[in-house]
Amino acid sequence: MELISGPTPKRTLEGNMKTTSPTTARVPLWLRWLVPAALVVAWLAIAGIGGPTFGRLSEVSSNDQASFLPSGAEATEAQDWQAKFRDSKEIPAVIVVESDSAFTPAQLGEAAAIKGRLEALQAGSTVIGPIPSEDAKAVQFVVPIDSSAEVKAVVKELRNEVQASAPAGMRTFVTGPAGLTADLVSAFAGIDGILLLVALGAVFLILLIVYRSLLLPVMVLFTSVFALCAAILLVFGMAKAGWIQLNGQSQGILSILVIGAATDYALLYVARFREALTHTTNRTAAAVTAWKAAWEPILASGATVIIALLCLLFSDLNSNKALGPVAAAGILCALFAALTLLPALMALLGRAAFWPFPPKLLPETDREPELVTGLEGQKGLWRATGSLVSRRPRTVWVASVLLLLVAATGILQLKANGVAQTDVILTASNAVDGQEALGRHFDAGSGSPAVIVADEAKAPDVLAKIKASDGVGDAYLLAEGGAPVITGAPGAPASPAVRDGKVLINATLNYAADSADAENVVVSLRQDLKKIDGGVLVGGVTATALDTNTTAQRDLVTIIPVVLGVILVILMLLLRSVLAPVLLVASVVLSYAAAMGVSAFVFNNVFGFPGADATVPLFGFVFLVALGVDYNIFLMSRVREESLKHGTRPGILRGLGVTGGVITSAGVVLAATFAALGVIPIMFLVQLAFIVAFGVLLDTVLVRSLLVPALAYDIGPRLWWPGKLGRAENDAAARGGVRSSRTAESEDAGVR
To answer: Which CATH number fits domain 1-60+212-368: 1.10.1510, 1.20.120, 2.60.40, 1.20.1640?
Structure first.
């Protein structure tokens, strides 16, 4: 992993001892031109195929509630039973026509005529309605929509038809599960365009400022975009084959994650390449040397994130299971792009990539400075940071820990128990307004009833218990075709539909289907009904939301230990130590807790959010811990490299100094890319954008720059326990063995 150095043994790329200066080392023609060109052409082909596939992701993407159902949950079992009672899968659209005053007979006649026009659209099975409200100020229709159709397009058609057909001066809404799904799809529409533009624009601007080069940011962005094209191609194939279930949530995270990760890996390689160019005039030699130095930390970083994401497969939530392999595929493509495409581009461009400020060749005597304190050759901010760490290490890390602990106390204010579906969409929504109108004039749960699957023999007792339950407005058995069973009513079905000894009961709740009160009613129903029928199932929209939130909270407890264990093992293999990985993992966990604490305060008091999605803490943990460890990997792999040559304490300061700029830049880039998620008006994505962006900056600025180096410096060589480097005699030998440990410590601390 060493860069080509000049003062002592002179090596070619193959590492053989030569008399030829590394600044003039010859590289075969095939390595200089053919291999880099072939790699670039191969990636151009991948981008040419994957790019157009981006617009086809909607073909294999689903944003309805079914895509988020927890597998094995009671609501899922109930939904499976519901499917046996109907020939097609339908989701209801609830149409509300509202007036400020009671409907006149003429207006009621006009409203009733809407039914015929709705049936003419043939959106699904029988249209139910008109159903007038008790205050006579609204009427309601229920229009089943075939879920195989384009729900967004059908809902738009319904809205246009109802608006045109409603009596003059009336307000019209299309809400219910179908309406909310359509508005959710519309909110996700920006993923294909504005999200990428904002993310790429932010990355380009940051790289332009950092490198003051016109060409290099373009090359890094090419690498990121080509990695995204490859990821899209891979994900599309997996979704098409039915291996994964893709939704807008996963799609948005995929784009941001690939761009951010590929840029981070690219910056690490570019830093090594720039450093190599100060040692040789041969661009290919510099590219290969940089690759040898960068591949191990990049691979370790990528593997950490990939395995952490795949741990989401242990989740019971379909949405989490889907995100795991989708995001892991994206990181894999980012990894390969950073280790193949970018080195090839750099090998072809050489110093020209950094124009108009190309790196200069250093005098041979300055390429590997003799380190005493580790601050030799460092300037500016990172010399000052290193000096602070060396002079007051214990004060620095203790103060950092206390600051993080104070911030972490805010996590007690985090309300991650799920939010109402009407709160998910942050922009104006006809469906959300319709839910409010529905609650003003009808049982708030109408259109989205709880669905109870009961044994046929016990159905009368179950039905009676449901009707007597608090929070239930009405309940009825369902006949063939989904019509209610009404005893004694002329023309009404008299017997329920039966499948395998089971019947369906619809229960209209007094509360909005997506409210906490409705979830409490479902909990009570499940407890009470199981005393009558042990096999009874309570499903529906409310039950699905309840089971989703409950499962998400259980996943948090299950997956976190698995992720931490995996990361710990990878770090131990990389650093050949036990103590260092434990400290690094502890630091990122503390950083995560602090980020969540600050986020809770901001969500409650600044943004005014009613709460947070139940999956937010888990996603925040996976991304922050995995990505936070990335920067510690970049830092500590270089620290170990320098410690082997110069000793632990000088190696810490040297590693901090040479990686400080690139890691900080990478952190800012990743924070900016995740912050771009905030342009999508979905509460979950906005919250995740803030958590990850703030958490990455916190980890980059405080944890990696101060806490970890100061703690490592305070511990000294024991940091590498139980490895050989952790023994004091070996550490002294690494520094030449000419100073006593006490003298060395004082010199390392800058006392002399």
So the answer is: 1.20.1640
| CA within 13 Å, CB half, 731 | 26
Looking up tokens 């630091």 gives 587
Selected residue with higher pLDDT from 603 and 435:
603
SS3 of 606-624: the string is: CCCCCCCCCCHHHHHHHHH
Strand partners, 171: 98
* Residue in 641, 662, 663 with CA at minimum distance from that of residue 652: 641
CA distances 211 to 206, 218, 359, Å, are 9, 11, 11
Between CA 391 and CA 658 the distance in angstroms is: 19
CATH 3.65.10.10 fits 369-420+562-752, yes or no: no
367 versus 327: which is more confidently predicted?
Answer: 327
Q: Give the long-range contacts of residues 491-496, CB within 8 A, separation 24 or more.
A: 496/456, 496/459
Structure token digits, residue 115: 């039914």
The DSSP bridge partners found for residue 90 are 146
Cα-based distances in Å from 613 to 390, 415, 550: 43, 9, 11
Pick from 175, 168, 162: which is nearest to 120 by CA?
A: 162
DSSP string, 178-233: HHHHHHHHHHHGGGGTHHHHHHHHHHHHHHHHHH--SHHHHHHHHHHHHHHHHHHH
CATH topology of domain 73-188: Alpha-Beta Plaits (3.30.70)
Which of 637-665 are b and which e, b meaning 16 or more Cβ less than 10 Å from the residue's Cβ? bbbbbbbbebbbbbbbbbbbbbbbebbbb
Neighbours of 135 (CB within 10 A): 12
d(C-alpha 111, C-alpha 180), whole Å: 23
Phi/psi-derived region of residue 242, left when phi > 0, alpha when psi is between -120 and 50, beta in every other case: left
Tokens of 387: 């000096």
Q: Does domain 442-547 have CATH number 3.30.70?
A: yes
Phi, psi dihedrals of residue 450, rounded to the nearest 5°: -75, 140
Topology agreement, domain 1-60+212-368 and domain 369-420+562-752:
yes
Question: What's the rounded mean pLDDT across residues 726-750?
Answer: 47
The pTM of this model reads 0.81
528 vs 466: CA distance, rounded Å:
9
DSSP at 726: G
Q: For 650, how many CA atoms within 13 A lie in the half-sphere containing its CB?
A: 26
Q: Which residues contact 30 (CB under 8 A, 6 or more apart)?
A: none
Q: How far is CA 422 from the centre of its chain?
A: 22
Q: What is the pLDDT of residues 470-526, one digit of tens each?
A: 889 888 888 877 778 776 555 556 688 888 899 999 998 888 777 788 889 999 999
Q: What does the block give as tokens for 53?
A: 């596939």
211 and 346 in contact (C-beta within 8 Å)? no
Q: Which of 651, 642, 739 is nearest to 373 (CA)?
A: 651
Q: What is the mean pLDDT of residues 265-272?
A: 88
Lowest mean pLDDT among 147-156, 269-278, 283-292, 536-545: 147-156
Q: Are 628 and 404 in contact (CB under 8 A)?
A: no
Average pLDDT, the chain: 81
Domain boundary assignment for the chain? 1-60+212-368, 73-188, 369-420+562-752, 442-547
Is pLDDT at 714 greater than 60 in this prediction? yes
pLDDT in tens, 517-563: 888 999 999 999 999 988 999 998 888 888 888 888 888 888 889 88
